[in-house]
Amino acid sequence: MNDTKFHPFDKTVTDSIILTTLNDFSNWARLSSLWPLLYGTSCCFIEFASLIGSRFDFDRYGLVPRSSPRQADLVITAGTVTMKMAPSLVRLYEQMPEPKYVIAMGACTITGGMFSTDSYTTVRGVDKLIPVDIYLPGCPPRPEAIIDAVIKLRKKIAREIRRDEKRLGQGKRYFTSNHRFDSLPNIGIRKYNKKFPNEFLDLEKASESLSGPEVMKPEISPIWRRRITKS
């Protein structure tokens, strides 16, 4: 009876095969090579810049910063987002390929911060514009907290199922309702909340409810009033 002979290659086959699913393999590849697009508008971005140095070395997590949204799958928003900048942020997000993720970094990005207390130009939360996956509070957050947010995002990606992602879509990840961008007259910073407490009015209705000097003419201090009368 002839003995069965095994090829030397067969002995190493069992040590070279990994059994997994296509979904897990795709998630592993994506979480290990995140390419972020840095959208920094204020002081929080300075804290993120320290991650590039050798002390924190965020390259060990597979992060490769990109300057083009078409090459990025992660956008990190750091700083205050104004109404004028909101369309640009939404346009950058729409240019990113699927799947894509968002980290909201800092109090100003999450809620508007101290700049939204009495301001009509600040967006009170970036999640009203684009879906947010990770909220990172702080003013500003420490670099260690940013690394922790990236680790939590990696865990979130590892639990994703491609079938559910196609079925739900990006719109299901919104946490708050959308903004309504309606134009308002220049009626002063401290008056717009009192004049329109519940709803936005168009320019015609707003101009009828306010007098002309209150809308068009700013308040002149006594010093400048004396200079104007002298001239």
From TrEMBL:
It is found in: Plastid, Chloroplast thylakoid membrane. It holds the Pfam family Oxidored_q6. GO terms for biological process: aerobic respiration; electron transport coupled proton transport; photosynthesis, light reaction. It is a peripheral membrane protein. It comes from the Eukaryota. Residues 43-153 form the NADH:ubiquinone oxidoreductase-like 20kDa subunit domain. GO terms for molecular function: 4 iron, 4 sulfur cluster binding; iron ion binding; NADH dehydrogenase (ubiquinone) activity; oxidoreductase activity, acting on NAD(P)H, quinone or similar compound as acceptor; quinone binding. GO terms for cellular component: chloroplast thylakoid membrane; respiratory chain complex I. It catalyses: a plastoquinone + NADPH + (n+1) H(+)(in) = a plastoquinol + NADP(+) + n H(+)(out); a plastoquinone + NADH + (n+1) H(+)(in) = a plastoquinol + NAD(+) + n H(+)(out). [4Fe-4S] cluster binds at C43, C44, C108, C139. Its EC number is 7.1.1.-. It is an enzyme of class 7 (translocase). Keywords: 4Fe-4S, Chloroplast, Iron, Iron-sulfur, Membrane, Metal-binding, NAD, NADP, Plastid, Plastoquinone, Quinone, Thylakoid, Translocase, Transport. Its cofactor is [4Fe-4S] cluster. Binds 1 [4Fe-4S] cluster. NDH is composed of at least 16 different subunits, 5 of which are encoded in the nucleus. NCBIfam families: nuoB_fam (TIGR01957), PRK06411.1 (NF005012). NDH shuttles electrons from NAD(P)H:plastoquinone, via FMN and iron-sulfur (Fe-S) centers, to quinones in the photosynthetic chain and possibly in a chloroplast respiratory chain. The immediate electron acceptor for the enzyme in this species is believed to be plastoquinone. Couples the redox reaction to proton translocation, and thus conserves the redox energy in a proton gradient. Belongs to the complex I 20 kDa subunit family. PANTHER family: NADH DEHYDROGENASE, NADH DEHYDROGENASE [UBIQUINONE] IRON-SULFUR PROTEIN 7, MITOCHONDRIAL. This is NAD(P)H-quinone oxidoreductase subunit K, chloroplastic. It comes from Aneura sp. Wickett 473. The lineage of its organism: Eukaryota, Viridiplantae, Streptophyta, Embryophyta, Marchantiophyta.
